[in-house]
Design a protein that fits this description.
It comes from Staphylococcus americanisciuri. It holds the Pfam family DUF6501. This is DUF6501 family protein. The protein is an all-beta fold and about 70 residues long. The protein is about 0% helix and about 35% strand. The radius of gyration is 11 Å and the shape is globular. The protein has one domain: SH3 type barrels (Roll). The chain is built from no helices and five strands. It has a five-stranded antiparallel beta sheet, with no helix packed on it. A hairpin with a 3-residue loop joins strand 2 and strand 3.
């Protein structure tokens, strides 16, 4: 499966967190404002990044700006 190799692949780009104001979920535990993360996969709505837990997580693009 493709997602099993994401942590080992070369990052596509880097993004910086600009806010963690989520309406439905708590993302402030997994994302730090001002920190830069490597994007391992990207869809139309989401970035999959290696977050503060050390695992790959999917987050809305609205939390980030491209570096």
């Amino acid at each position: 499966m493709l997602h099993e190799n994401w942590k080992d692949n070369e990052p596509l780009k880097q993004v910086k967190v600009v806010h963690t104001d989520a309406k439905k979920f708590t993302v402030s535990d997994m994302l730090t404002i001002g920190k830069t993360y490597d994007v391992v996969n990207e869809t139309e709505e989401y970035y999959q990044i290696i977050d503060n837990s050390g695992h790959v997580g999917g987050y809305y693009k609205t939390y980030f700006e491209e570096v």
